[in-house]
Amino acid sequence: MPSSEPIIHIDSELCTGCRRCAAVCPVDAITGEPGEPQTVDAHRCVICGQCVQICTAYAPDHLEASDGLKAKRLQRGQLPSVREPLFAAYSTGQALEVKRALADSALFKVVQCAPAIRVSLAEEFGLPLGTLTPGKMAAALRRLKFDRIYDTNFGADVTIMEEGTELIGRVLSGERLPMFTSCCPAWVKHAETAAPELLDHLSSCKSPMQMVGALVKTYGAKQDGVDPAKIYSVAVMPCTCKEFECSREEMEVDGLREVDVVITTRELAHLIKDAGIDFVNLPDEPFDSPLGLYSGAGSIFGVTGGVMEAAIRTGYELVTHETIPNLQLDFVRGEEGLRTATVQLGELELKVAVVAGLKYVSAVLNQVKAGHCPYHFIEVMGCPEGCVSGGGQPKLLLETLRKTAYQARKSSVYRHDSHQQVRKSHENPAIIKLYKDFLGEPLGHVPHHLLHTTYQSREKNVSPISAGRKGGKL
Amino acid sequence: MNHAASNSLVIAEAAKCIGCKACELACFAVHNRDNGVGTAVGTVTMPVLPRLYVIRTDSFTMPVQCRQCENAPCAGACPVQAIRQQDGVIAIDAEACIGCKACALACPFGAISLYKAYSGGAELPQPLLQERRDSRLQRKTRITAYKCDLCRNTELPGGSAAGEGAGGRGSSAAAAQDRNPFPACVAVCPEKALRLVEAGTGRSRSLNREGGTF
Ligand code: SF4
Ligand code: SF4
Ligand code: SF4
Ligand code: SF4
């Protein structure tokens, strides 16, 4: 079980008060005087981890001798074998917990990996920025003794089925428009905090991670003939906020946590190194079926505009019953904070917007509040270039490499998509089978039970709602 | 660059420095590619050893680094001539250094530090001496002097994406990397507090091209 502590911290012993973290924080959650240690306002903080990515104030070596670093690593939930420097801004991790579970033979250990992991994990082992390694990643997870290697990309395909159907329904009925995506937990937490009156504009879809979590302990358990209560479900995410998401109260299926624990890309690298696995020389291995088979559309969820592009690929065909003429939708690709486009879906003129980075979302929220938002569908990702730039991704040593790194990870994601045989979610055979054998219709009874969720206001001074982490006080 | 005139140096403006230590980290990163230090923090298996130091007083912070003194007192103090004038910098030959600390004592700016020597990310043993560690006799680690070399012979790590399944083997061969256009500290400072000064001509080069004089 995740602890009840907050996830993002600033170590007051290490913080130099440079306030670079405050400059990247999209929600002004970092307070303090210049030159003094800063603090994180847990209520505002959306746990995106951008402060963790930018902080360069590291613990000097001499703390090692005094056991100070050892204590700090423990406090941060790091494996004792970790050698890398410690920085003032950090997120607490779950690698110790996962390592313990991996050694427990009574558990059936299932893991899923977000789309953005396979384009960045290799950086932790010295390979060039953005190196694409889905096969080595699967091989490494298998050597870590996971029983099933599944994929969040599969959940992304399911998300498209559900969210796409939901969108078309809402557009046809003209209800609760615009509809916002709900894959990014940082965005969801921000909406719950900053615009609770607009929560019914969010898609009711759980994130791909939670969808896979729910399916692992139902559909997957049945396929494997395992008791769902024995399944230990781990997710590897580029995101520091996913740990928060997985411990939200709503994220339960039949009394079990959907995802038991989340680790970041960096923590997966720690576990691989800890186990002495030679990542660079691993062979390419496949994911397990059925929850590890994905389409190109699923794999682009990791970049800004990806959910939109995937949704349009499927939405176009659902609405027009024709094949989409071009799969590469350049108008949603890009890096501006807010991009808009109009897409012709048969008769329907669909107006869409893509928001990359939470600091660009308030203008859109204000439009919706004022009742004159022109868009039907809005993708919001908390991080500046989507999950490839997430707070749990490999942390760069040089700020000058940030643009190059994000660019390389992005093109890797797109290359992965273009190499897939199936590039549309609704054409993924595993998805077709899932709906035929288990889920029924999108938005139907079973999907409603397993794949959709509700949101809660986090307005300050409103009832003492649990802020997601069980028993937590964020 | 006119070597015959005088050595260039990197100098900081205290009023601009916010004390983030990005310069220290970048310095370490570009000087330790041989130790497996790549683009990500996770590739680091050794302590961060910078060649400049952000100092902090009650009223300001700023990094201090080697001035590349024309008549370098450190070189004069070195008993084994491990410090030389080379391509416009005062350079320490780490192999020749005997770790005697004379240079560090002689430097008026405190710009030289002695650290353990690393090779392939692991401590480099001293060939002759042993010491008691964890109640066993073990090879003593080699110690050498480190100082700013204006990023001579360093490269920016990075490199572009390799192919599907990462056939590309990583760091050493990884792509033709750019030479540092500036010393790494100058390049990364978010406040542009550092600049490379060509002291001989009085010209200075900073990233924002303000062209301040020295
Ligand atoms: S947490 Fe890091 S980035 Fe933020 S003020 Fe402290 S040292 Fe600077
Ligand atoms: S995690 Fe994100 S929201 Fe929270 S303090 Fe850091 S930058 Fe701000
Ligand atoms: S954009 Fe991705 S990585 Fe960033 S907070 Fe949202 S889900 Fe997490
Ligand atoms: S990078 Fe610049 S601002 Fe940061 S400590 Fe160094 S000189 Fe100061």
UniProtKB/TrEMBL annotation, chain A:
SMART domains: Fe_hyd_SSU. Residues 6-35, 36-65 form the 4Fe-4S ferredoxin-type domain. The keyword Secreted does not apply. Keywords: Iron, Iron-sulfur, Metal-binding. Pfam families: Fe_hyd_lg_C, Fe_hyd_SSU, Fer4. It comes from the Bacteria. InterPro entries: 4Fe4S_Fe-S-bd, 4Fe4S_Fe_S_CS, Cytosolic_Fe-S_CAF, Fe_hydrogenase, Fe_hydrogenase_lsu_C, Fe_hydrogenase_ssu, Fe_hydrogenase_ssu_sf, Fe_hydrogenase_subset. GO terms for molecular function: ferredoxin hydrogenase activity; iron ion binding; iron-sulfur cluster binding. SUPFAM superfamilies: 4Fe-4S ferredoxins, Fe-only hydrogenase. This is Iron hydrogenase small subunit. It comes from Paenibacillus sonchi.
UniProtKB/TrEMBL annotation, chain B:
It holds the Pfam family Fer4_11. The keyword Transport does not apply. GO terms for molecular function: 4 iron, 4 sulfur cluster binding; metal ion binding. The keyword Transcription does not apply. Residues 88-117 form the 4Fe-4S ferredoxin-type domain. It comes from the Bacteria. Keywords: 4Fe-4S, Iron, Iron-sulfur, Metal-binding, Repeat. This is 4Fe-4S dicluster domain-containing protein.
